[in-house]
Design goal:
- The structure is a single chain.
- The longest helix is centred in the middle third of the chain and has 20 residues.
- The chain is an alpha/beta fold and 575 residues long.
- A 6-stranded antiparallel beta sheet has the order 1-2-3-4-8-9. Strands 12-11-13-14-15 form a 5-stranded parallel beta sheet, sandwiched between helices.
- It has 20 helices and 20 strands.
- It is globular, with a radius of gyration of 25 Å.
- Bound molecules: 2-deoxy-2-amino glucitol-6-phosphate.
- 2-deoxy-2-amino glucitol-6-phosphate binds next to helix 9.
Length: 575
């Protein structure tokens, strides 16, 4: 049991405000060393006892990840009395046993991590060594903040950005020791570790709400800038596309004979859109896989396969494990990521960074549209190096991409139609989303936004699939969003308009996203959301905006916490 007075701690389940109240009621003594943690429950319910830190005698730890052999380690600790149901507490008792055997905190950490299986970021302090913090990471994020005469450890730079924007990346299986004299990083084996310093290119102001009610709403409205920032600097002085940070030779890219995109959630839907563009522009077969399925299906990949991972946070465990599997099969891996210094880009062969700035809202918005931009840029770059498109064709598509911020802004300016709709549909218990071609992943992403935020049944379908079952779901006044392709793609568009007529004939309330002059679409529409004229492959960039706004507003009207939806975390660092 904790030795009273050795470690001072306060912990509470639920919102941070609960802990603030506890500390106000029972203030902590002044200190120069502290550790803290917010938990996404994996083992044990979200209760006070299961919250972190976990204290064992003179030692306290906080832990992100899953210790997969915690049962076996609990058994090894036999006589120890556990205060929680968590896997994490095992690490606290293991640390105590090591320091009580005479090891310093660093050596104790080294001994403990050698016993652990699974994913972990562990941070530990020892009351009898009060000027030191030691941490270790495997398959879970950890970054060092380097301030003036102060140091920070965090899962994400956002935690210390108010104090310093200078940081150090930590690699896999590394131990970091912080003292007032500085930072020392070693490998789990004790050898000095290579580290890389970087400067965070956004500040706390960017991470604040700037007058919006939700970070998510702010981030929806930041998309014109996020898209234009992601497009910046992509042309060389000859007007050719350049992807500087890609660090992958054109010769290698010319040998690629298959592309596999792996991602989760919203990033996966961005990958589905990318498939249509990449295959059309490069004629390279492109598969899109859920990262959590990828390595278990024994995928056929080899050195000629290019694996593209998409991740806003760069720390998604499923995606990270997929990368490792791909690299074991000698495939080359390109990461599309929004977080400088994150694990996924560090473990990939090359990276294309999006420049959306910090995305705080759990529901991804500008992450999605900037992922689309990065995917389009990759597709055009592949087409360029493989000679599949002429320079003028690529320039024309890039010029259209440059006009996307303005097109997105138009959708944002027309928000009132969407907000009125959210008010009307506040009691909806089920909403369907339909689309064809790239409209299909747009429908899937629109449905995910609504699930995440409004906690209601929402489902995206390929419109052509309706007659194969889902049309049985159509009931009177059921809201059905439909994304209609541009008038330039008439065959595709005609079929979608027929689908709208089919659901409307069965009583659905049709909310149609279509070009303003699309009279056929208008004729089968109860509520029209006008889309600007963009080419088919780029249409998700504008079609997704009203779907994001709708989900955000409906959740707001329902009184939900839009930034921190129930049961969800911003970065899912456990498998
Ligand atoms: C999106 O709104 C969700 N928060 C979730 O699906 C997310 O896209 C997914 O967990 C992947 O996250 P990543 O992009 O950080 O890897």
């Amino acid at each position: 049991m904790p030795v009273e007075g050795a470690i001072e701690w306060r912990k509470r389940a639920g919102k941070i405000s609960n802990l603030e109240e506890e500390i106000a009621a029972r203030p902590l003594p002044p200190t120069s060393v502290a550790i803290g943690h917010t938990r996404w429950a994996t083992h044990g319910a979200p209760t006070d006892q299961n919250s972190h830190p976990h204290v064992a005698g003179r030692v306290a730890i906080v832990h992100n990840g899953i210790i997969e052999n915690h049962d076996q380690l609990r058994a090894e600790l036999g006589e120890v009395e556990f205060a929680s149901e968590t896997d994490s507490e095992v690490a606290a008792h293991l640390m105590l046993r090591e320091v009580e055997s005479g090891k310093g905190l660093v050596d104790a950490m080294r001994a403990v991590v050698a016993k652990l299986e699974g994913a972990f970021t562990l941070v530990a302090v020892d009351a009898q060594d009060p000027d030191r913090i030691v941490a270790a990471r495997r398959n879970s994020p950890l970054v060092v903040g380097v301030g003036s005469n102060e140091y920070f450890l965090a899962s994400d730079v956002a935690a210390f950005i108010a104090y310093t924007r200078d940081a150090i990346e930590l690699g896999q299986d590394q131990i970091v020791e912080l003292t007032r004299d500085g930072v020392n990083v070693t490998t789990f084996d004790g050898a000095p570790a290579e580290t890389k310093s970087f400067h965070v290119d956004w500040d706390l102001e960017a991470a604040q709400k700037q007058g919006f009610d939700w970070y998510m709403r702010k981030e929806i409205f930041e998309q014109p800038k996020a898209v234009s920032d992601t497009l910046l600097g992509r042309l060389n002085d000859k007007g050719e596309l350049q992807l500087d940070e890609l660090r992958m030779s054109p010769e290698l890219l010319r040998r690629v004979n298959k592309i596999v995109i792996v991602a989760c959630g919203t990033a996966f839907y961005a990958g589905l859109v990318a498939k249509y563009a990449i295959e059309h522009w490069t004629r390279i077969p492109c598969e899109v896989e859920l990262a959590s399925e990828f390595r278990y299906r024994d995928p056929i990949i080899d050195p000629m396969t290019l694996v593209v991972t998409i991740s806003q946070s760069g720390e998604t465990a499923d995606t990270l494990m997929a990368i490792r599997h791909a690299r074991e099969q000698h495939a080359k891996v390109i990461a599309i990521c929004n977080t400088n210094g994150a694990t996924i880009p560090r473990e990939s062969d090359a990276v294309i960074y999006t420049h959306a700035g910090p995305e705080i809202g759990v529901a991804s918005t500008k992450g999605f549209t900037t992922q689309l931009v990065a995917c389009y840029l990759l597709g055009l770059y592949l087409a360029q190096v493989r000679g599949m498109k002429y320079g003028d064709e690529i320039a024309a598509l890039l010029a259209e991409l440059e006009r996307m911020p303005e097109a997105i802004q138009k959708m944002l300016d027309a928000k009132s139609t969407v907000y009125d709709l959210a008010e009307e549909l506040v009691d909806a218990t089920s909403v369907l989303f339909l689309g064809r071609h790239v409209g299909y992943p747009s429908a899937l992403e629109g449905a995910l936004k609504l699930k995440e935020l409004a906690y209601i049944h929402a489902e995206g379908f390929a419109a052509g699939e309706l007659k194969h079952g889902p049309i049985a779901l159509i009931s009177q006044d059921l809201p059905v969003f439909v994304v209609v392709p541009p008038k330039g793609r008439d065959q595709l568009r005609d079929k979608v308009i027929s689908n709208i007529a089919e659901v409307r004939a069965r009583g659905a309330r049709t909310i149609v996203l279509a070009e303003a002059d699309d009279e056929e679409a208008r004729a089968v529409t109860d509520t029209l959301i006008e889309l600007p004229k963009v080419s088919t492959l780029l249409q998700p960039m504008v079609a997704i905006i009203p779907l994001q706004l709708f989900a955000c507003e409906l959740a707001t009207v329902k009184g939900h916490d839009v930034d921190q939806p129930r049961n969800l975390a911003k970065s899912v660092t456990v498998e």
